[in-house]
Design a protein that fits this description.
Strand content: 25-35%
Structural class: alpha+beta
Largest sheet: 6 strands, mixed
Radius of gyration: 21 Å
Order of helices and strands: EHHHEEEEHEEEEHE
Distance between the termini: 22 Å
Oligomer: single chain
Shape: elongated
Number of strands: 10
Length: about 160
């Protein structure tokens, strides 16, 4: 049987633009005050260190944080790195309903990322506004973001999993 794998990262254009702006602000002391800075090794080192820290944080954020989703005939496996050390598996027997839907990340969950609420709702998303809404037999809900809803709908049909589009 065919399975579906998807890995999503925080790689939106506006995050890249934010990085460029922050780096420009961090580099500006080197450019604007070069005559003053060249006399002090400590100040040059502190500016270079701040640039290195900013780059490390952003690159770490991009490469470490990711949502991995696998769907097959047995169920759904998901993992939001670095929050989940091991993958989480939910069998189709545990799932009451699966819906592929459009959602509003800001209004419904307060944004993207690892989102939990005081109710029984949880969302794991990195970008976009499409996801798989899972309602479990115990009443808990989980929204897994996806960039490929059509492929998932096709897979649900192939496995005869009741779903709504």
């Amino acid at each position: 049987m065919k399975s579906f794998n998807e890995v999503q990262r925080f790689d939106q254009w506006w995050l890249r633009l934010l990085l460029v702006v922050i780096l420009a602000i961090a580099v500006s002391p080197l450019i604007m005050d070069w005559d003053t800075l060249k006399l002090s090794r400590f100040e040059i080192a502190s500016v270079i260190l701040s640039i290195f820290v900013i780059l490390s944080l952003f690159l770490g954020f991009w490469y470490i944080f990711k949502l991995e989703t696998t769907i097959n005939e047995k169920g759904i496996t998901y993992r939001f790195v670095p929050f989940h050390i091991k993958s989480r598996f939910k069998s189709w027997k545990e799932i009451k309903s699966a819906t592929i839907r459009k959602y509003n990340p800001i209004r419904e969950y307060g944004g993207w990322g690892y989102r939990i609420s005081f109710t029984k709702r949880k969302a794991l998303t990195t970008k976009g506004n499409r996801g798989i809404q899972l309602i479990f037999n115990d009443g808990n809900e989980l929204l897994l973001g996806t960039q490929q809803p059509e492929k998932i709908a096709e897979l649900f049909k192939q496995y005869n999993i009741p779903h709504n589009n």
